[in-house]
Amino acid sequence: MTADTAAPDTAVRTAGGRLALVDLARGIAVVLMVAYHFCWDLTFFRLVDWPLLTNPAWLAFRNLIAGLFLGLVGISLVLASRRGLRLRPFVRRLAVIAAAAAAISAATWLAIPDDFIFFGVLHHIALASVLGLAFLRLPVPLVLAAAGACLVAPAALAAPPFDEPGLRWLGLMTFAPRTNDYVPLFPWFAAVLAGIALARLALAGDGRVRDRLSRWNVPRPAAPLLWLGRRSLAVYLLHQPLLIGLLAAFLALANPAALQQSGLVPAPASGFVAECTAACTARADAAACRAYCTCMQGRLAEAGLPADAVMAPASPPERAALRDSVEACAAESGAAVRARD
Fold first, then answer.
1. Phi-psi region for residue 285, left (φ > 0), alpha (ψ -120 to 50) or beta?
2. pLDDT single digits (tens) 128-146
3. What separation in angstroms does the CA of 40 have from each of 36, 93, 120, 257, 267?
4. Largest Cα–Cα distance of the chain, in whole Å?
5. What is the pTM of this model?
6. Is 266 a domain residue?
7. Would you tell me how many other CB atoms lie within 10 Å of the CB of residue 51?
8. How many folded domains does the chain comprise?
9. Which of 122, 156, 211, 226 gets the highest tally of CB atoms within 10 A of its CB?
10. Do 216 and 287 belong to one domain?
């Protein structure tokens, strides 16, 4: 969840022309991001059963990481434009981030087409880096008011027209999309605007805050965090393939069945029926459950729905198709199964 968006500060300088405190903050965010993704990978491989997508504490942790990175985008925009925006470095960095975002979309489309990343944090950073330019010279109260408007926009403006695939990047959908990283324009642009406002306030006035920041040195034990903060885009692009590869290699040696359960390698054709039957027999006859689950496997395939849609149908059309399938298969098999709302 990040990109290396830092730019040389032309007014507040440290060694190498960068503001050390910003790089340190980004390095901390990188460590938090890697830790969160490692936990996600453990759940993906079913080595643990942590509710990352439903538990408020996990969701708050994820949101904290995304907010840190996006806030630093706003801060970096201000630092990079203190004496006027240098267009060539800005466009070059923007092109790198946009290309990385496109690569993430393409890679996840090939690997997990049902949950591919169509507008994740890199996509947001690329767009926010452009939109943020319009707020660099506006009065700080107006920037903060715009941040507040971004925060309330999803609740105030969400409507079915925004459910269309081409508009889902706005964040005004009426349902949660199926994707492994979703950082839409609203409400997340608020974090970028907050970073712009914070940097503007810190660097304004008589310069005392600016002078303190320029003299601040990173403690030696924190030097690795500074190194990570200056290479956050590379870490973002490389850490997940590395973590997943290491875990997959470990499981291939220690527990090959877990690879099939994760979906990283194909499971036997009867895998869905077996798991479904095991869950169903707690409340229905085993023979009826096998007939029901076999029916559901065929109907899910006909509807083009992934097997995990049974647990978490994302869109209203998916929920409707799943409800029809459950009712039809339950009636056909005689299993006492009800569709989830």
1. beta
2. 999 999 999 999 999 999 9
3. 6, 29, 16, 19, 21
4. 79
5. 0.73
6. no
7. 11
8. 2
9. 122
10. no
End-to-end CA distance of the chain: 32
> Residue 55 carries which DSSP code?
-
Please give the single-letter amino acid code of residue 112. I
Q: What is the chain's length?
A: 341
The C-alpha atoms of residue 34 and residue 152 are separated, in whole angstroms, by: 29
Residues 107 and 138 occupy one common structural domain: yes
Does 159 lie in the same domain as 65?
A: yes
Q: Are 184 and 123 in contact (CB under 8 A)?
A: no
* Residue 305 · residue 296 · CB < 8 Å: no
Query: What CA–CA distances, in Å, run from 280 to 42, 145, 164, 288, 292?
Result: 26, 52, 35, 9, 9
* 4 dihedral zone (left: phi>0; alpha: psi -120 to 50; beta): beta
| Residue that is written with structure tokens 């169903």 in the block | 280
What is the spatial distance between Cα 48 and Cα 215, in angstroms, rounded to a whole number? 45
Whether 245 and 275 share a structural domain: no
Q: Kindly give, in sequence order, each residue whose CB lies less than 8 Å from that of residue 303, ignoring residues fewer than 6 positions away.
A: 321, 322, 325
Segment 250-294, tens digit of pLDDT: 887 776 655 555 555 544 444 677 777 777 776 667 777 888 888
Give the phi and the psi of residue 315 in degrees, each rounded to 5: -100, 160
Q: pLDDT at residue 186 above 90?
A: yes
Range of the domain at 313: 271-333
Q: Are residues 115 and 35 in the same domain?
A: yes
Same domain, 185 and 325: no
Contact 151, 187 (CB under 8 A): yes
Judge whether 5 lies within some domain. no
- At residue 18, the 3 state secondary structure works out as coil
